[in-house]
Every structure is written in C-alpha cells, then in structure tokens.
Design brief:
Arc Repressor Mutant, subunit A; TIM Barrel; about 20% strand; about 375 residues; about 40% helix; alpha/beta
Length: about 375
C-alpha cells in the first residue's frame, strides 16, 4: 500500500514557533497553486503505478483554507489517475477557526473522514504569543461541531515544554483535551527552530527556554494520563484509542512508499528521496514549464539503515533487527552500544524487534543517534 501527501502552503498567520513552508499572502494565486498541484498529481502517477493508495493526507500550511471546489478537484484527480482502496483514510489538517458545520459538511462530501486539528494550547496567553489565529473558545467548540457534522475520527495537536509552563498547567491541558472526546492526540515537545520569532525572543532573552528536566517531567505525565485514559502510545509523539492510529503517518514510520505533491513536499521510494522546492513562485513556474523544481537523493545503505532505525525506534513496533542487517551488517561497536542500552533497560528485543522501554522513550533520539552507522 502507498500514500499521497498534499502540501497546501497557505496560512492566515505566521506562528511564532513554526518553520514549515507556507505563505500568508496567497490569495492572488490560490487557484493557480491548486491547478499546479493537480498537474503534479497527474504527472507523478507513474512513480507509484500498480500500488493501491491507502491514505491521502492534506497537510500544510492550512488545508482547511481550500474551497470545497478546490478540495473536490484534487480528490477527483487522485481517484481518476490512481488506484485507491475502497475505504482510504483521507485526513485534512484544520485550524479551529476554520471549522463550522458548513465547512465540515463540505469536507465530508469530498470523502474526508479524518481531521487533524491544530489546537496547540488551551491557554489564551499562550495562543497569543504563538500568534495563532484561533482562541480557546473556538478550540473547545470545534470538536463537537466536527463530530455532529459527521467526522468520528479526530486528532488534535498539543505542544508541551513551553516557556513557563508548569506541570500543573500541563496536567490541566491534558485533562481538557481528554474531556473533548477525541480519538487521537499528537503531543509535541516545543523545539526552538532557527529563523523563527520564538528563536529571536529567546536569543534576546525576552523568553526563558524550558529546562530538559521540565520537558521530561511533562512527557512522563502525558504518558501516564493518556495510558490511564485508554490511549495507546504507538509513537513517541502520538497516542490513539484502539483502531484509531494514523494510518498515513504510521506508513511513514514503517518505511512504506509515498509521494508528496506541492511546494516543499517530500517523496520516498525505499532507495531514494526527493523533495519539491520550498518556494511557491518557483514551484508553480516549474510545473507550468513542465520542468519541476525538486532535489533528489539516492539513499546509501548507511542512509537507509539509519533512517529505518530512527523512525522505527520511535514506534511501539520498533525496528526489526533482521531487516536492518539485510540492509547493512552493523559493526561490533553497534552491537556493544545495543547491549549497553539493553542492560540499562532503555531497549528491549522481542521477536527480533528492537523496541524502546517506557524509560527509554524519553531518550529516543539519543539512542538512535548512538546506534547510527556513520
């Protein structure tokens, strides 16, 4: 099975912490951008020929800014030019301020069956310094609106490890999220990305970054409370009720093939990775001139080994040791590091699958980096 990712590079506001590719001045060329995305979908169909499409994911940016007709054209193009499974997972990322009965009903009409909603926080002050376009009341009201309009598979995003966020405040955030009755929660630890407003504020000492200890405590609390509420911690940042894991993202983590269309979108085909230019004007120009602007990388055995290790280790399924060794036979040093983490009880091996323990989850990136083949 394969997946399609569509990057919609439009946003109302520039969030203070975000370094994703988007534009806030898109109105004059929105229609043209959609036409180019459709053209790219058509021209890319041979790269994934004979593989059924199981998942379609509209990310961004803010896909909920698409009109119903634009969404319809994109989905119709996929169904016309690709083999789509009978019941694909079709996810649309949406912001609370774009969610109304009318908008959700229009998405349902176009086969969208899963929403990923960027709530981020239930604190008005935090939303303000994040420069989010929505408020807390919209966060609280958008979930029942979406449910009543026909979406029964809803994921929300939360961010922890924020400046000045106490453990008590974070617990309140988690409790509020659970009260909403959603099926999936993605909780991300704040990272300070270069060239963002947040990075500038911290550099100028306007905001104090949280300590590693604070972030670790908040992560542990998140694990405990969501486990008690029946959520499966199936990836470091992702929790789902039974039968509600993100199929699309899980395919990424399992190393399945996918194509990405739209500016900055990535594609992966086991032996190579490609990514479109992160510039809206140059992306559209390339599509119109039949000379798409993208970069391409053939993956070496070392690249494939490290990538499989990095993404697989973050999941509950882990990474298969036999599969790793089929790509590249690791060194004695790899075996020594692996044994060290097994003895520390940060890793475990079950049926040849290397998995993180509960204690090891807080150190996922470090463990993977130490095991990388250089």
């Amino acid at each position: 099975m394969a997946g399609i990712y569509i990057h919609i590079p439009f946003c109302k506001n520039k969030c203070s912490y975000c370094d994703f590719h988007f534009s806030t001045s898109y109105h004059s060329y929105q229609e043209k951008m959609v036409a180019c995305i459709i053209e790219e979908l058509i021209t890319r169909k041979e790269t994934i020929a004979n593989q059924p499409i199981e998942t379609i994911y509209f990310g961004g940016g803010t896909p909920s800014l698409l009109t119903e007709n634009e969404l319809k054209k994109i989905i119709e193009t996929i169904y016309k030019h690709y083999e789509v499974t009978p019941q694909p997972e079709i996810t649309l990322e949406a912001n609370p301020d774009d969610i109304s009965t009318q908008s959700v009903e229009s998405w349902v009409r176009q086969k969208v069956n899963r929403l990923s909603i960027g709530l981020q926080s239930f604190d008005e002050k935090v939303l303000d310094w994040m420069n989010r376009a929505h408020n807390v009341q919209q966060s609280l009201s958008c979930i029942p609106i979406a449910q009543q309009a026909g979406i029964q598979n809803i994921s929300i995003d939360l961010i922890y490890g924020l400046p000045d966020l106490t453990l008590e405040q974070w617990e309140k955030e988690i409790d509020t999220a659970l009260h909403l009755g959603v099926q999936h929660i993605s909780a991300y630890c704040l990272t300070i990305e270069e060239k963002t407003a947040l990075a500038s504020w911290i550099k100028k000492k306007k905001i104090n970054p949280p300590s590693n200890e604070q972030q670790a405590a908040q992560f542990q609390l998140l694990q405990q409370k969501l486990k008690a509420a029946g959520f499966d911690h199936y990836e470091i940042s992702n929790f789902a009720l039974p039968n509600f894991i993100s199929k699309h993202n899980s395919n990424y983590w399992r190393g399945e093939k996918y194509i990405g269309v739209g500016p900055s979108a990535h594609s992966y085909d086991f032996n190579y990775r490609s990514w479109n230019i992160a510039n809206n004007a140059k992306y559209m120009q390339g599509i119109e001139h039949k000379s798409p602007n993208f970069d391409f990388e053939l993956l070496s055995p070392e690249n494939r080994f490290n990538e499989l290790l990095l993404v697989g280790l973050r999941t509950k399924w882990g990474v298969n040791l036999t599969q790793l060794k089929a790509i590249l036979n690791p060194s004695i040093e790899f075996e020594q590091i692996l044994q060290n983490y097994l003895q520390k009880n940060w890793l475990t091996i079950q049926d040849q699958n290397i998995c993180l323990t509960e204690a090891g989850k807080a150190w996922a990136d470090k463990i993977a980096e130490d095991l990388f083949v250089l």
